[in-house]
Amino acid sequence: MQLGSFSNAVYTFCDWVARLAYINLLWILFTLSGFVIFGFFPATIALLATLRQFIRKNHPPVFQTFWQYYKKEFFNSNKLGLMIVAIGFILYLNITFLQSTSTNMSSFLFYSSVIMSGIYFLIICYTLASYVEVEQPLGTHLKNALLITISNPLPSLFIIFGFAAVYFAVTYLSGLGFFFSVSILGLVILSSANLAYKNILKKQEKLSTIAK
Known about the structure:
With 212 residues, the chain is mostly helical. It has helices at residues 2-33, 40-55, 62-72, 74-99, 104-133, 138-151, 153-172, 176-211. Helix 1 runs antiparallel to helix 2 and helix 5 (104-133) packs across helix 6. The longest helix is centred in the last third of the chain and has 36 residues, at 176-211.
């Protein structure tokens, strides 16, 4: 029994490694097929949606699933991407301007803008996770992502440490990024978002119990 359990664990691990590598390659291929600018967000949404199926222990055909999500969400995901890039660009310009000034007030505003950019990064992660989880208006995705970021610090820390770990792994292990970087980051985002959703459900159950 122990040998069988060990064999199953090894098989599951190898299966996940193969899936992550394949999905990562598909992400690169479809991002390039959209000339990067138009392919990045549809490919990212397709990657997250496909990974979500595997996390839920569904086993759909990888390429077909990825392609279906890519086609279905091509225009809407680019609309979301335009919104994300526009807000991010404004934050970037603000930080760049404040960095070039040397007053005490500008220093305070600079560090405040850096913190806001960090919060915005987390909002983007939760927005992408929410986008593949439920169908709702883009504004609702962003609003819910903001509330999750504020009310769930632990999953947010998981995202930060997960991204940092992937960054250092890709930096020091050549070739790893090409096969696993984006797919592992997607796994970090979805796992952290699922933890946040569970925390919210627990809080809602407690409140409903108190209300009774």
